[in-house]
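A further point concerns the way the authors explain their paired sequence and structure data. Since the whole study asks how a given chain folds, the encoding of that fold should be made plain. A single example would do more here than another paragraph of explanation. An entry of this sort, consisting of the sequence and the corresponding backbone structure tokens, reads as follows:

_____
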Amino acid sequence: MKRLTTVIILALFSSCGKSLKESNSNEQKLSINTEKSKTMKKVLFVLTSHEDLGDTGLKTGFWIEEFAAPYYLLKDKGVEITLASPKGGQPPIDPKSASPDFQTPATVRFNDDKETQKVLSRTIKLETVNQADYDAVFYPGGHGPLWDLAEDKNSIALIEDFYKNNKPIAAVCHAPAIFKHTKSTNGTSLVNGKKVTGFTNGEEEAVQLTSVVPFLVEDMLKSNGGIYSKKADWNPYAVEDGLLITGQNPASSELVAELLLEKLK
């Protein structure tokens, strides 16, 4: 009887010990996950909702490469990404960016990535976004932003809020159009006296849209006091000046993401 009692006690002790270990292990995992959540950087991507290419009857939107390359570069490094657009839902994709001539490893990956396509189809409305929830903001280009994001009051306020809170703002190709109306706290243009780049006048002329777009990115940045620079048309080129990171064209999208990633470290 004594032996049976001893066996039962030992079994209970062993079971309790195991439960305690499991409990501690679960608490450690929860602590690690909580800590990981705290340290994980969060970047907001803002995409255009505009799809009409002026009065041409053609469609535009965002350029796939300028979304996909930065998205995967940041995501693969553990950055948490949220997608937003003025109207919410599926942002329009510039049909030309899906043509075979403009495919890159990033666009090929996107084309096979049903999960990311699903996330993209459910962008949140820009008006619901709070900069306090993110560490940086990134704007992919395409011609769409020239019409909506350049004039969007929510986007303008958001960019100014990010800047006031010392958080990076990145934009590539036509996306530097977002700085058309943004102001610093002293009332001057946000790009005034800052080194910037963006889609060149020569590149716009090459795609025969100079007379279609509402304004030229290069001219706007210069008129707003930006210290504009560029490389030869279609060459990769990105510029960082303080919190602002800008890229010249689609080939520059990954360079912009790399500079942003470095800024987040």
Remarks:
- Residues 4-16, 29-37 have pLDDT under 50 and may be disordered.
- The longest helix spans residues 2-39.
- Residues 42-264 form a domain with the Rossmann fold fold (CATH 3.40.50.880).
